[in-house]
Write a structure and sequence with these properties.
Largest sheet: 8 strands, parallel, barrel
CATH superfamily of one domain: Golgi alpha-mannosidase II
CATH class of one domain: Mainly Beta
CATH architecture of one domain: Sandwich
Structural class: alpha/beta
Strand order of the largest sheet: 1-3-6-11-12-13-14-18
Number of helices: 14
Oligomer: single chain
CATH topology of one domain: Immunoglobulin-like
Length: about 550
């Protein structure tokens, strides 16, 4: 039955920004965590974010929600569907469709062990003597999990962990189950569906088992169904892989509406740490040569609930640069997780660190440029073509959580702190705290961005040819009436930036970010260390 179009406005605009959050990122006594989150959003973030990406809020057994034991229920420790409905009032929601695997506690897996339906044929049994060396892995853990059944010991496919059992999409019943789950999420108010770990969906022994043609066909099918049943809804693919592989999920405009810019977080972090645009610029330049299909765009982010992916640096940074960069991150309390390669060796897969702490200098509280560096890192993606996404713990300047790592045994927990709401609000209201300096300024910048038509996700983008350490983009509104220059100083030096042909003439300029006249002399634009300006042209 056709649902009809719930979202009649254009799919996106410059007013769009996504908040990424767990259902229990902020908690208040006497309220379910989901109700507490809703209260915090209403009180502190009203009108700032057009969409909230609700990380998995279903019953689960591990991996902070990504090992789902029931796809159709809300985790009672978070709340219920009424809480989700309340969150959807006045804003759009994004739900995770964790379609690659299930928890060992899921009924389907229990039924597999019992040789009962549904579930008996939902997982992938593999003879451990099979040659699986070609399989591309995101982890260094064993690919197969040994399971005791009444039929004897069996080995089943487990790409991510022993508690995350992969599903068999060669069985049409599995595909039909997840089509139904996806449509159920849309009925519950999801405007966007994030296809978690979708690249690994289809398995075929003797291949890499990543990005297989059958996987792309499944994404196309989901897109067709969404377009027909809920025009205006959005499909986002999560594929933490090198850039060319990542954007393959645009296909010809018939797969994902959005893909993550997975190369952006490590490139920005490296560029600011090293005070150079040497590696960032060629990648952004390559984006300008790409043809993004109509109805498609990028999701630009830095921090997230996961770590900083390192596979997206492949081919962009030399190995020695990556190793040196990771050594610096370890000194700041970060961890580096590994993945198994097809030649049997392990390579860095993910950096686990608070994105806020990643911009410290190592000099402790005496570093005057820590917060300016971090704010630069968060502002740069706001100027790029696409839709920005902000992680709750970046918005609140959350530091490394080593106790979380110790408590859970997961290095990703370093960036997944859950806040007592009263404590967080006291910090936000204290102008001397990290959160008190970052949160209000971050919100101010996000609000300003909403009013700049040149930041429309589809508006043209041109990279400026500037000196090393300065990153500049020119954006133009779709109607051509608004022109903006976004200039970023990634260094600790005061610089004068020459912008030939752009600051000449009788036009006057206004810095929309600082709400002031920019410091422009005959020599050029003067920038303080880590300063960002959004120059709007004002006709004389």
């Amino acid at each position: 039955m056709r649902q009809g179009q719930r979202w009649s406005q254009p799919r996106w605009s410059e007013k769009d920004c996504v908040l990424i959050t767990y259902g229990d990122n902020v908690q208040f006594p006497g309220m379910t965590p989901l109700a507490a989150l809703n209260a915090f959003l209403d009180r502190r973030l009203d009108g700032v974010f057009s969409m909230v990406h609700m990380l998995p809020f279903f019953p689960f057994s591990s991996d902070d929600g990504f090992s789902v034991s029931d796809f159709r229920s809300v985790n009672p420790q978070l709340g219920d569907w009424d809480d989700i409905a309340a969150l959807a009032e006045g804003r759009s929601l994004m739900f995770d469709l964790v379609l690659n695997h299930i928890s060992r506690e899921h009924l389907w897996f229990v039924n597999y062990i019992r040789d009962e339906t549904p579930g008996r044929d939902y997982v992938i049994e593999v003879d451990p003597s099979e040659n699986l060396t070609m399989v591309v892995r995101p982890r260094s853990s064993p690919l197969l999990s040994r399971v005791r059944t009444p039929r004897g010991f069996k080995h089943v496919w487990a790409t991510f962990s022993n508690d995350q059992i992969d599903l068999n999409y060669a069985n049409p019943e599995v595909l039909l189950e997840f089509i139904d789950v996806m449509l159920d999420y849309i009925r519950h108010g999801a405007r966007a569906i994030r296809l978690d770990a979708v690249a690994f969906l289809w398995k075929e022994i003797g291949t890499s088992c990543i990005h297989l043609p059958e996987t792309h066909e499944v994404v196309k099918l989901f897109r067709t169904l969404v377009e027909f049943l809920e025009p205006g809804a959005i499909l986002l693919t999560e594929t933490n892989v090198p850039h060319a592989e990542n954007i393959s999920y645009f296909s010809d405009g018939d797969e994902a509406n959005m893909v993550y810019q997975f190369s952006l977080p490590p490139l920005i972090l490296h560029a600011v740490q090293q005070q150079t645009t040497k590696y960032l610029l060629p990648w952004v330049q390559s984006l300008e040569r790409e043809k993004v299909p109509d109805g498609c765009t990028y999701l630009n982010f830095t921090a997230s609930h996961d770590g900083v992916g390192l596979r997206p640096l492949e081919g962009l940074l030399p190995d020695d640069e990556i190793n040196s960069f990771l050594d610096e991150m370890r000194k700041l309390g970060g961890y580096v997780s590994m993945r198994a390669t097809t030649d049997g060796s392990d390579r860095p897969y993910e950096l686990n660190i608070s994105y806020f702490d990643a911009f410290r200098s190592g000099r402790g509280d005496k570093d005057p440029w820590h917060i300016p560096r971090f704010m630069l890192s968060q502002t740069l993606p706001l100027s790029m073509r696409g839709i920005p996404a902000v992680y709750f713990n970046a918005l609140t300047a959350t530091a490394n959580d080593p106790l979380g790592v110790e408590r859970t045994g997961m290095t990703r927990a370093i960036n997944r702190r859950k806040w007592d709401g009263s404590e967080l609000e006291r910090l936000i209201d204290n102008p001397l705290s990290d959160a008190g300096q970052v949160f209000p300024e971050y919100i101010r910048r996000l609000r300003l961005r909403r009013g700049i038509r040149a930041f429309h996700p589809d508006a043209p983008q041109q990279l400026l040819d500037l000196q090393d350490g300065v990153f500049g983009l020119e954006r133009c509104s779709l109607d051509g009436r608004e022109r903006l220059l976004a200039i970023h100083n990634l260094t600790a030096d005061t610089l004068t930036v020459n912008l030939p042909g752009r600051l000449d003439g009788n036009d006057r300029w206004y810095d929309a970010l600082q709400q002031t006249v920019p410091d422009i002399t005959a020599e050029g634009l003067r920038l303080r260390p880590y300063q960002v300006v959004w120059l709007l042209q004002m006709k004389s």
